[in-house]
Every structure is written in structure tokens, then in C-alpha cells.
Design goal:
Layout lengths: L3 H4 L2 H21 L3 H28 L5 H25 L3 H26 L8 H20 L5 H30 L2
Helix pairs in contact: 2-3, 2-4, 3-6, 4-5, 4-6, 5-7, 6-7
Length: about 180
């Protein structure tokens, strides 16, 4: 199925690393005591984000894109995003909106995308700019809110709802793309 070279390519190892950081993030976040603990949690999320950037960069630059990477990279991305959103929901209740949007958007991409693929043999491109921007803002906002721990403040509310708006825009963009793909001959 997958060759040893594919399994142990540097970009794929970075994906495994990112998946491994998820339980470490959870542990550090929920056991954080004081600003140092929150900074450690934020640092783990920064490390995860950097590994995501470098796995894509290395894969493209050195022609190391693999079928396994195409499968595992989005899993690592979505798992990290979903866990971070669910985790922050405990401290910042407005994150429940982000959890709902993530579930709706990714559910739509998975199920409607699968339906269209089965019917027409076509699928959307991996990630489009509105989705990339929304995801980048999500992680920047999440890192800042973890690092500075400012629940119940106006700035945290503005940051979260700005992210919600960007996520909704990305969801609408992807739904339009799925609709156009469905209508193609």
C-alpha cells in the first residue's frame, strides 16, 4: 500500500509529530497553573503550526508529496483545529460557535464532497485561500488567547467573533465550490 520511503518521508514524520502534539497540548492546557503554564501550551501550538508549515514547504520544495501525505496532513490539521476549538470552549464559551462551524464545514466537505466524487469523479482542490486565511487566523487567535489567558474581555470576544466570520466566509466559499463542481457536466 504505502512504501517505507513514503511512510518515513520527512513531511510525513512532521505530520505524525503534529498528531503526537495533540495530547501533549491537552495535558499542558488543562494542567496549566499561571502564566508560565499557558505560555507552554501556546508554545506547543506554535510548534504544531510550524511543523504544519514545514511539512508542506518541504514536500513541495523537494518533491516529497506522497499519497500518504495527502491523506494524513488534512487529518493532522483537522484533528488539531478541532481539539484546540473544543478545548478553548471551556475557557472561552464563544468558541462553541467555532466548533459548530468546523463540524459543519468539514462535514459538508467530507460528505457532500464524497457524494460529488462518487457521482462525477471530481473533487475540490486541497485548500483554497479563504480557508487558509481562516485557519491561519484561527491559530493566531487561539495562540494569543492561550498565551495571555484573557477570558471574558472585549478583546477576546472581538478576536473570537472575527474568526467566526472568517470561518463562515470560508464555509460559504467551499459550499459554492462544491455546488459549481456538482453542476459541471
Amino acid at each position: 500500500m504505502f512504501t517505507k520511503k513514503e511512510i518515513f518521508s520527512i513531511p510525513n514524520i512532521l505530520c505524525y509529530f503534529r498528531i503526537g502534539l495533540v495530547p501533549i497540548f491537552l495535558y499542558t492546557y488543562f494542567t496549566a497553573e499561571g502564566s508560565e503554564g499557558h505560555m507552554i501550551s501556546a508554545g506547543i501550538l506554535i510548534l504544531s503550526s510550524l511543523s504544519d508549515f514545514f511539512d508542506g514547504f518541504i514536500a513541495r520544495k523537494y518533491d516529497m508529496i506522497t499519497e500518504l501525505g495527502k491523506l494524513i496532513d488534512p487529518v493532522a490539521d483537522k484533528l488539531t483545529q478541532f481539539v484546540v476549538a473544543c478545548t478553548l470552549m471551556y475557557t472561552y464559551p464563544a468558541y462553541s460557535w467555532l466548533v459548530a462551524i468546523i463540524v459543519l464545514k468539514d462535514g459538508m466537505l467530507l460528505f457532500v464532497g464524497w457524494f460529488i466524487y462518487r457521482k462525477k469523479g471530481k473533487h475540490l482542490a486541497q485548500a483554497e485561500m479563504p480557508g487558509k486565511i481562516a485557519t491561519a487566523v484561527f491559530f493566531v487567535v487561539s495562540i494569543l488567547l492561550i498565551a495571555f489567558y484573557i477570558p471574558g474581555t472585549m478583546i477576546s470576544t472581538v478576536m473570537i467573533y472575527s474568526t467566526v466570520v472568517l470561518m463562515i466566509i470560508a464555509m460559504i466559499y467551499y459550499s459554492q465550490g462544491l455546488y459549481r463542481l456538482y453542476k459541471e457536466n
